[in-house]
Amino acid sequence: MTLSIEEQRISFGRELIEAGWLIPTLADGVNGLGDPAEAVVEGLQAQASRIAKQQNYPALNTLRFPPVNSEQLLRRTDYVASFPQLMGLVSTFAGERKEHAALLAAAEAGESWQQQLEPSAFALIPAVCHPLYAHLEGRTVDGECYQLTGDCFRNEPSEDPFRMVAFRMREYVVLGSEAQARQHRDRWIELGEEMLSALGLEIVVESANDPFFGRAGRLLASGQREAKLKYELLTEVFPGHPTAIASGNWHQDHFGANFSITAADGSVAHSGCFGFGLERIMLALVARHGLELKDWPVPVRALLGL
Amino acid sequence: MTLSIEEQRISFGRELIEAGWLIPTLADGVNGLGDPAEAVVEGLQAQASRIAKQQNYPALNTLRFPPVNSEQLLRRTDYVASFPQLMGLVSTFAGERKEHAALLAAAEAGESWQQQLEPSAFALIPAVCHPLYAHLEGRTVDGECYQLTGDCFRNEPSEDPFRMVAFRMREYVVLGSEAQARQHRDRWIELGEEMLSALGLEIVVESANDPFFGRAGRLLASGQREAKLKYELLTEVFPGHPTAIASGNWHQDHFGANFSITAADGSVAHSGCFGFGLERIMLALVARHGLELKDWPVPVRALLGL
């Protein structure tokens, strides 16, 4: 009996849960990580850090932003315009005793008690590099590299373990001239491919596009693909069905213009980034090397410090 | 001229920003961490991990839960009843092209565009141990220890750098008999005090209570304090004004009952936890040792691996 690709994905998710790699939560599409999974994710971060340190950046800055930021950030990065279907905004409770009693009554009656909350100015970040652009607002940049790790939220609940609502990215971002931004992205596509290949994954690099919203979005997506702004590193977790586990992006001067960031020559700064999808890579490694971490190839465990 | 305690807190926050320890974001009360701050937070985690490994637990499990979970978790932990003022729920966009146009128009007009979103089933976690109780639902426990690190959200925006809306906790949680839960909490209060003292902080341990909501909440709070369920580890960052930087809690059988978790003898499981407020400890260390990480005492840097 042949399983469909959807059945294969769900079946793999169940194996991961049974073996303690993934921990289901009360929320659809949100998984915790068990002991071996978190150890692999930590190993991936350490390995990426080592590779980054070997490069010759004018500066390598490790910054850390929490998963919550402002609704302004979604507007000013054009995320509201381009990916409204993926956003998460935060509502809070500002009532007194009477409103609290009503809230609790609705919750206990099984009604949608969240209707009684008020929108706040907080929003979840969809990409770990977004807060960086706001941080650099009004500054001049010249090829400095930023190493960022953090949790992202994208509203696309799924039973596919490769499509989590909440997941971590490790990103390397350079801002500066067009050449600095593009070269950074291109260099890291090579570095990322080398790193993932050394871990036993067969990688294909392909031009790609983001899931822009709506009809106008389809034009943006095809423009992005034609201009070769985005490349994905894919691996065939399920034969015939490549899964993206990392990507390199050249944003042109999109963020530089929106946040008034200037290159050394006075022009609007360009930005380029490379992002590792940490949980996706970990899952691809399990698919490749099996559910028993101690049976993974010695060189792979050595690279991950396991 | 003497500064008020509020002015001292805000002034310290400005110094931290100028020196690159904290990075303001577009959201009130949300800070990113600069290079030295993140290095200290990583050092604190590594040091806590080393201490945990030296203890004799039947098992020490490192699990990792993302910052997003289900609204059910807020209800089932009684957070909606006890701390509604601190909650964060997630709203998302489920519209088509027409609704998107309206959303963008409101955003561009500077109106509260988030009013047009719909409540989702997602919520932010206020404490990193909450997803663990749901994970253990229906199981039997016998003193196993869980090591958890993650981002928490509590809606209390402030200019005080010690009161962040989004912050990280490292928690050690044991579930089992009443004795196992209490002894774990008490042991970690000692271990935590030793660890923080070795880093140069003067620590006082005091019985405390959580900020339960409303008039009924004040009774819960005073009951919690009288029953000595919660202890805080405080340090005088500002003379005469102790700040809590870690805490030990015995939840009695609150979570065991709500999630049907059973102790080895068949009774309802008790839980105890100890949590380090990672950013608060880092800030207390800066207040103690200064803004230049390289000038911190050699033994402190050695303990943090810096």
Automatic annotation (TrEMBL), chains A, B:
Q: Which residues form the Aminoacyl-transfer RNA synthetases class-II family profile domain?
A: 150-299
What keyword terms does UniProt attach to this protein?
Aminoacyl-tRNA synthetase, ATP-binding, Ligase, Nucleotide-binding, Protein biosynthesis
User: Is-annotated flag, keyword rRNA processing?
Assistant: no
Q: Which Gene3D superfamilies match?
A: Bira Bifunctional Protein, Domain 2
Gene Ontology MF terms in the entry: aminoacyl-tRNA ligase activity; ATP binding
Pfam (any one): tRNA-synt_2b
**Matching InterPro entries:** aa-tRNA-synt_IIb (IPR002314), aa-tRNA-synth_II (IPR006195), aa-tRNA-synth_II/BPL/LPL (IPR045864)
The answer to keyword Acetylation applying to this record is no
Listed under GO biological process in this entry are: tRNA aminoacylation for protein translation
- In its UniProt entry, what is this protein called? Aminoacyl-transfer RNA synthetases class-II family profile domain-containing protein
What organism is recorded for this protein?
A: Psychromicrobium lacuslunae
